[in-house]
Specification:
249 residues; alpha/beta; Rossmann fold; 2 domains; six-stranded mixed sheet; 10 strands; 22% strand; globular; binds adenosine-5'-diphosphate; binds magnesium ion; transport
Length: 249
Amino acid sequence: MLAFDKVTFGYGSNDNILDQLSFKIRPGEFISIVGRSGSGKSTIFRLVTGLDEPSTGTITLDGNLNGQRLGKVGYMPQQDLLLPWRTVLENACLPLEIAGMKKKSAHEQIMPLLQEFGLAGTENNYPEELSGGMKQRVAFLRAVLSGNPLLLLDEPFSALDAITKLAMQEWLIERWEKRTATVLFITHDVEEALFLSDRIFMLRNKPVTSFEEIEVPLGRPRSRNDLHNPEILQLKEQLLCALREEVMQ
Ligand SMILES: Nc1ncnc2c1ncn2[C@@H]1O[C@H](COP(=O)(O)OP(=O)(O)O)[C@@H](O)[C@H]1O
Ligand SMILES: [Mg+2]
């Protein structure tokens, strides 16, 4: 689905963030990316979307080498980019409208989802009138509805309270299992990464030359109870330790 082959990238004349990074993602996989702040996670997403291009190396998306990636992925950036002049409903409907759906049908499809997302009653509000967590849910909904086979989610649930976060995780997994989209998911939350993913990529070195890769030893469907499984608890401890070491360095 996605392959980086020896990708090197730095911003302007600054030091490289990625150095000869290679990895592959199979169709339908759910991958989480963890690593301390500033390690290059969001940069990887900007390269996948085509907002930035590698200085050397190649990126292949769905069999197409380089270029032509803009508009081919569903992307939720770390800063939600809701259009301030559109209401919640109009923001959420955007991907459906772009796909050519009539406004009325788009609204009919979105309204129940807003309800499900705890956003009922906000449909006619503008983004500036919403809390951070609410804006995040609208941006998340919009990215998922883009219908692209590759979904990039950059810390999509970071501003949510614990209960809402669990509900959103479950919604995402249910949808992912139904539609077999491929998901790349950046998070700070190790438990979230373990619950959601097939594999976890950890960024440890700077510049990033490779990932430390963790295969999550859980089948599907999963339940929260699986997180208490001794093997998972041990993995969690291991991940936290590695991330802590990174921060101390
Ligand atoms: N537009 C930019 N111009 C210059 N430097 C940037 C830009 N965006 C990010 N950086 C730098 O690149 C590094 C990696 O950033 P980023 O990918 O956002 O990290 P992460 O998402 O892991 O927190 C950081 O040192 C950051 O300061
Ligand atoms: Mg980031």
